[in-house]
Structure to design on (547 residues):
């Protein structure tokens, strides 16, 4: 192997050196969409609470509960201190070039005392789900935000301790070794491992076998190996010594209920895989009820972040967490032609 | 490599436009399999892979006995095609490119991707699979632009859809996840057995060559 790879591996053997990120749903990773709206300066501060009350009757903004009705002025040079959201542009039937308060507040008896002439603003169309979304959305107009601390830490790469990362590395190393063994057999260099996070046991290690069977991708192999460990299983792996399984210890097992009933297939288990699974494998993981997936490097038709996000696909009855970038460079090096 | 099996089969591509009679014939076999599964308390899905007027694969859901959540009827049938090809030293890709899948329910996302990877060009199905469907219901994997995931395929949906839905409804109504039902063996099947068998003969997997 070339020395460069060795050097990289050397660095990656320090679990704090590599970093990885959660693969979040589009809703969580895209920009929060914005809506056009009209705001107006509050020229008489004492009218603020009355104006907010009256405006919420005329333009209630029922679907925009996250929006704060009043904000501090954005331009320091303005004489007024506060600005209030009047209505959405879509609330106004006629759209003159520069609408006046009268245009926006068609209700004859609206008391416009203390309200200046309206101007255009943009407001976040829905509540932000992550801190980066919150920070960007707030630049348009203030919004409420219920922070999920785990997501915030995850996005900063600070969710896991060094000890946890060392464990993840151990599991991914098993997957990498399987990938190399598969490559020696002329298979695609993709390896995977399924573990039970409760016991720390590696339940199955496998690699791609698609040269012999077009559907035997590494994740499919591991799913079947777990089945063997549970007294089921379909394919035989004698010719592939790097594909192996251990029966899960029922005493330590993750999904087990109090009655000691075997968990449903992969409930509570985690998959470590060197390359992002394809759509067949990703959906197989949904069917198997996997709880978390860690992968090294993306793949062009990948279904856990690249082409699809099957793990958080709307309409499916099971979702799971996905993290990418575990030992990325080692995993990338696997598929590079030697 | 022998190619006689491939020779007279849809060189003109006619296998991609099965006649109504053909569709009815193969789908009625698939429906009989689904009924049989329902009667033994299993997921009522039946499917056949047909090549040159021969059934190369017949599958029913085998998730429970294998403890492998991917053992859907389609996967079982695809494995049988692979075996058939390997017995005859035929190139599975060449055979699959001339196969039609007849299935009572829209293939799920996993199976749709598997059908792409195996290069099956045409799928005729009964009802939609609202929970997991990979041919348009949840995602459309059949037609998606996935250059590294085999070839896209065509679907002919809706054949006896109401009947297929009713079977699924009956199954999910009786399904209780807390009780593990003892598995009824296929050969101990009761009432409808007789008539099913006669029909079944005609769709028996091709074993002769
Ligand atoms: Zn795959
Ligand atoms: Zn399926």
């Amino acid at each position: 192997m070339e020395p460069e790879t060795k050097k990289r591996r050397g660095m990656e053997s320090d679990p704090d050196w590599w970093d990885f990120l959660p693969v979040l749903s589009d809703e969580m990773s895209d920009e929060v969409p914005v809506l056009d709206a009209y705001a107006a300066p509050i020229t008489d501060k004492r009218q603020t609470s009355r104006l907010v009350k009256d405006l919420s009757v005329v333009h209630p903004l029922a679907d925009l509960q996250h929006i704060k009705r009043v904000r501090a002025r954005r331009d320091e040079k303005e004489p007024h201190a506060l600005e209030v959201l009047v209505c959405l542009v879509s609330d106004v039937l006629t759209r003159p070039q520069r609408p006046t308060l009268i245009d926006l507040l068609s209700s004859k008896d609206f008391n416009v005392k203390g309200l200046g002439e309206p101007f255009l603003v943009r407001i976040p169309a829905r509540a932000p789900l992550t801190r980066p979304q919150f920070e960007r959305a707030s630049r348009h107009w203030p919004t409420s935000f219920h922070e999920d601390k785990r997501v915030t830490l995850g996005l900063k790469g600070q969710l896991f301790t060094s000890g946890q990362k060392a464990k993840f590395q151990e599991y991914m190393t098993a997957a990498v070794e399987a990938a190399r063994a598969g490559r020696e057999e002329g298979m695609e260099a993709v390896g995977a491992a399924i573990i039970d996070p409760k016991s720390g046991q590696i339940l199955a290690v496998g690699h791609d076998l698609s040269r012999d069977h077009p559907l035997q991708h590494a994740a499919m192999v591991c799913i079947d190996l777990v089945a063997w460990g549970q007294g089921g299983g379909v394919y035989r792996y004698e010719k592939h010594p790097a594909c192996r399984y251990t029966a899960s210890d029922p005493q330590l097992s993750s999904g087990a209920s109090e009655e000691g009933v075997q968990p449903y297939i992969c409930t509570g288990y985690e998959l470590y895989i060197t390359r992002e699974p394809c759509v067949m494998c990703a959906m197989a993981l949904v069917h198997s009820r996997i709880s978390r997936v860690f992968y090294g490097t993306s793949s062009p038709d990948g279904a856990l972040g690249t082409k699809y996000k099957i793990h958080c696909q709307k309409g499916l009855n099971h979702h799971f967490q996905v993290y990418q970038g575990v030992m990325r460079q080692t995993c990338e090096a696997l598929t590079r032609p030697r | 490599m022998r190619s006689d099996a491939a020779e007279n089969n849809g060189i003109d591509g006619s296998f991609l436009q099965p006649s109504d009679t053909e569709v009815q014939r193969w789908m009625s076999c698939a429906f009989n399999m689904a009924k049989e599964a329902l009667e033994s308390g299993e997921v009522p899905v039946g499917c056949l892979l047909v090549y040159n007027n021969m059934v190369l694969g017949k599958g029913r859901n085998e998730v429970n006995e294998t403890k492998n959540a991917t053992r859907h009827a389609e996967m079982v049938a695809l494995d049988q095609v692979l075996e058939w090809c390997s017995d005859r030293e035929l190139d599975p890709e060449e055979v699959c490119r001339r196969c039609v899948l007849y299935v009572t329910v829209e293939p799920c996302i996993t199976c749709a991707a598997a059908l792409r990877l195996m290069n099956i060009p045409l799928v005729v199905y009964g009802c939609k699979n609202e929970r997991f469907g990979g041919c348009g219901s949840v995602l459309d994997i059949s037609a998606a632009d996935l250059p590294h995931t085999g070839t896209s395929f065509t679907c002919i949906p809706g054949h006896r859809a109401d009947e297929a839905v009713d079977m699924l409804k009956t199954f999910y109504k009786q399904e209780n996840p807390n009780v593990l039902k003892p598995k009824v063996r296929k050969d101990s099947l009761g009432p409808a057995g007789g008539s099913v068998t006669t029909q079944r003969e005609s769709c028996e997997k091709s074993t002769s060559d």
Notes: Chain B has eight helices and five strands.
